[in-house]
Design a protein that fits this description.
The protein has about 270 residues and is α/β, with parallel strands linked by helices. Helix content is about 60%, strand content about 10%. Strands 1-2-6-5 form a 4-stranded mixed sheet. It has a two-stranded antiparallel sheet with strand order 3-4. The structure holds zinc ion (ZN).
Length: about 270
């Protein structure tokens, strides 16, 4: 009897120890396997299917110089495989959604070395506008930096790129918010935006906000809400109405060009 008790006393902690070790090893293995998969994926060239989607639907990609396209594809690949795309009211996340949402982010960060909006590792996709329990309003998109989420209505995403020069583009708008937050969040991508250009932007924002709120302004009235909406709406105009923005508020256009290190006016000339 004593031997049985002794055996039980030894067996139980040993089994518990082995189980603990197995759990730790299993977690480590899963994490390691995931990292290896990601490491391999981001080094692979973009798939033929994904490239076909880019060529068919991404005007920005098509306007790039031939020498810039491989870099854009590489960045798409890395962005796409570093995010979790989550279907909310869409039945499934399609390849078009993955590629084109990634392209909308890379459109803004293309010339910013090593910037993949790393705080935002989840992209939630709704079929249409959705009701937010937090704001008690319907949204077309939003970013949640605490939860690391970028949220988009696919219907409005498509609508935004359906008309390339109306100054409305929900994806550019939300990615602009994400860049703004990413620059402030203390991680490996903190403070990547040029400080001098940010100071100019703050001065221009203070000058323009009262003008927007008095009416008759190039930027739509929503830009007058606060400095964040001013930045997000300005980026929609920067990419979709660069001629008008540069003509009406040239210092704002040049400041955004300095912040993002790219100039849509020159980009658009590539295709001419
Ligand atoms: Zn906004």
């Amino acid at each position: 009897m004593d031997t049985v008790v002794l055996l039980l006393l030894i067996t139980f902690p040993v089994a518990a120890l082995l189980f603990g070790l197995y759990s730790i090893f299993n977690d480590f293995y899963k994490y390691f396997a995931e990292e290896v998969r990601y490491w391999i994926k981001i080094r692979q060239p973009i798939s033929k299917d994904h490239l076909r989607i880019l060529k068919k639907y991404c005007a920005y990609y098509n306007r790039l110089d031939t020498s810039q396209k491989p870099e854009f594809e590489r960045k798409i690949q890395r962005f796409m495989y570093s995010k979790r795309f989550i279907a909310r009211s869409v039945p499934v996340v399609t390849a078009e959604m993955r590629v084109l949402i990634s392209a909308s982010a890379i459109q803004l960060t293309f010339a910013l070395p090593g910037i993949y909006l790393s705080n935002f590792d989840k992209i939630l996709i709704y079929a249409d506008s959705y009701y937010s329990q937090i704001t008690k309003k319907y949204h077309l998109g939003e970013v949640n930096p605490r939860a690391g989420m970028i949220i988009l209505s696919w219907h409005h995403f498509v609508q935004g790129y359906g008309d390339l020069d109306d100054g409305y583009n929900v994806a550019i708008h939300e990615m602009a918010h994400a860049i703004h937050f990413e620059n402030l969040i203390k991680n490996d991508e903190v403070a990547f935006l040029d400080q001098h250009a940010l100071s100019s932007l703050a001065q221009i924002t203070n000058r323009e906000l009262p003008k927007i709120n008095r009416g008759r302004h190039l930027l739509r009235s929503y830009a007058g809400t606060n400095q964040y909406e001013f930045f997000a709406v300005t980026l929609e105009y920067f990419f979709e109405k660069p001629v008008e923005l540069n003509a009406e508020i040239p210092d704002l256009y040049q400041t955004i060009a300095a912040l993002l290190r790219q100039d849509p006016l020159k980009l658009y000339n590539f295709s001419n």
